[in-house]
Amino acid sequence: MSNRLAILVLVFLAGAWFSLATMLQPRVASFSQSGQDNALKVLLGDGRKIFAQHFFVKADIYFHSGYYPSIFYQGEREAGHMSGHEDHDQGHNHEEEADFLGKPKDWIDRFGRNFMITEHTHLENGNEREILPWLKLSAELDPQKIETYIVASFWLANHLKKPAEAEQFLREGLRANPDSYEILFSLGRIYYESNHETARARNVWELALRRWNEQQQANKKPDKLVLEEIVVNLARLEENEKHYDRAIAYLEVARQLSPAPEAIQKQIDDLRQKLGATATTNSTSPL
Amino acid sequence: MRTVLALAGVVIKELYRRKDFYVLFVLTALITLVLGAVKFFNDEHIVRYLKEICLLLIWVSALVIAIVTTARQIPAERENRTIFPLLAKPVSRAQVIAGKFAGCWLACALVLAVFYIFFVVISGSREHEWPILNYFQAMWLQWMMLGVVIAFVMFGSVIFAAPSSNTTISFILVIGILFIGRHLGEVALRQTEPVRSIAYTLYFLIPHLEWFDVRERVAFHQNLIPWSACGLASLYAACYSAFLLWAAWLVFRRKPLNV
What we know:
- The complex is a heterodimer of chains A (287) and B (259).
- With 287 residues, chain A is mostly helical.
- Chain A has 13 helices and no strands.
- In chain A, helix 9 (181-194) runs parallel beside helix 11 (224-240).
- Chain B has 259 residues and is mainly α.
- Chain B has helices at residues 2-17, 20-37, 48-79, 83-87, 93-127, 132-159, 163-180, 184-189, 195-205, 215-219, 227-252.
- Chain B is globular.
């Protein structure tokens, strides 16, 4: 083959691949669902949710400084303590669960523990930041996993004193999950507790309450935990704003949901006293 | 001893002439630096994820270098027929085994030293803490573990026909032990006989390489491992390595060298 012919073939091949590229490019864009998806979504598809869950668990492992049961020890394990939603009883169970290793079964097990992390601790003093990369990665892989935004924002706002970053992350979550009452509730907490923006917090919590009603009221097993948190926080806000009648109305709802209704009733009674012994509450249920 | 060291020197020279180490080191450094440049939530003090990933890359790289370098030693000598002039020096077959082992093991020490210097600089510059003794323990234990792996691959290189099969089987076994070695006893106890006895015997027979993996302790700022435990683990690794090298010599001394 002469040099000239070889160059002509080369030019022909270059023309062919360029034409093919112009033909295929629009089709490839449509594969990626309106061209909005990132490379991870295109590469992993729905499999990315498995990785997202893995990285979420990884954050929990970091929270326990590496002391965590492997799949050989793992039973049902909740991540509630990482999101700061742990009450006393759950905390007690968590401590019991923490001794998953038990006594050494043989000399290999006993000696091997010298090289493992065998102490159950939680991150503190700002070291909670170490869980954040895994949560960020988890959210990137599965933007619909609402828990990730809630947990990350909790640590950012409450322990790392970064409410702006927490708000930004929650807003990302809200863009991916516009109807999430959990994210709206967390956003309201940042406005109220960190930014002290009462009006914004009220608006967001009331929106969260509306979203909860739209999604959960018809459910056979509604998510009562979040509802209780929403109404209790709204009641606290209204009480601080001296809107006692509205606070009482929210607490009436909370009383029906709370495992300790007597305590809520006491709060209601206190608020009624503040309203005045003769005043009557004409408030209607916020639900 | 001089012969063994001379043979070891040749293996070390081979390591720095080949590109394996450089490629793996550059990859490790590049991935670590890129990940280190990522800022999460405007926080510059997040460092544990970086330490964990860097240590993982060091472990993978060191295993690749140890297994691939060792697996080709004796088969390459036989294939190139350089084993004949070598044995005619005179060098005994036991010295060949010992020299090749020492060369690969010392080469791994050099590799680990370079990797760990990089790791110490990266983690120290991020967290401004220098737990040098913890890092030394991690490196020492990893080196001891690599001794067992190298002895195992050396044994494999006189058993298996091709370096590729030896490499593949060694990788599968080493990774398998690292993942489930610690839990094999637990799993065995949940089985019915005779699987229970077989699995439990296997649990005592396999080298517990997972003891030497203290990456989590380093990443999560744990206290120093008792030196006595480090010493006993080193003795355990030395016994396993000696056993495997002896087995390799037993097979190699009667093995025909023609390819």
